[in-house]
Amino acid sequence: MSKWRSLVENSMIGDAAADAGGLYFADPATTEEIRTLEQKLKTKFPKQFYEIYTDFDGVGLKYDDGEIIWWLLPLSKIEDGTEGLRDSWTDDPKSEALADKLIIFGDWYNGDVFGYRRSKSGAIKSTRIYQYEHEVGRIDRLDSSLDKLLRG
């Protein structure tokens, strides 16, 4: 079992899987697929992002009816997730301004999302994970890296 799969299975999302039908790990992404997303988002992902996504392209809770609720979004949903959230925040000018500051790749299932913070140029400058809290309309630092977030 890989380091990343083990971290996910032993994290709070792994615990939540017991209430669903279990965890679903998507097939790995290729480095080329990650690079294509980087080009679309005009950014460069940290090494950890490459490590986890080349291990599995998203993790979700799989329910008995086959529905998957993504916690770690597949690459195919990251661009839409980031853009979609920006669109959903347009009624709040403060939130809309914050939308350009995050690349969303995770969802807590409660309206809050997490991802990397990016500069005005689109660059991701650190492995820190930030969370957008929809109820208060702000971005807060969640953890120093994805592996530390998973370790709790």
Total helical elements: 7
Largest sheet: 4 strands, antiparallel
Supply the helix-strand structural class: alpha+beta
Strand content: 15-25%
Number of separate strands: 7
Give the overall shape, derived from the CA principal axes. globular
* Poorly predicted regions: none
Cα radius of gyration in angstroms: 15 Å
On the 0 to 100 scale, the average pLDDT is: 84
Helix share, percent? 25-40%
Between the first and last Cα atoms, what is the distance in angstroms?
Answer: 20 Å
The sequence of SSEs as H and E is HHEHHEEHHEEEEH
* Order of the strands making up the biggest sheet: 4-5-6-7
Task: Give an overview of the whole structure.
- This protein is an alpha+beta fold and 152 residues long.
- It is built from 7 helices and 7 strands; from the N terminus they run ααβααββααββββα.
- It has a 4-stranded antiparallel beta sheet. A 3-stranded antiparallel beta sheet has the order 1-2-3.
- Helix 3 packs parallel to helix 5.
- The longest helix has 14 residues.
Write the layout of secondary structure elements.
Layout: H1 3-9, H2 12-16, E1 23-25, H3 31-41, H4 47-53, E2 59-62, E3 68-72, H5 75-88, H6 93-99, E4 102-107, E5 113-117, E6 129-133, E7 138-143, H7 146-151
Helix pairs in contact: 3-5, 5-6
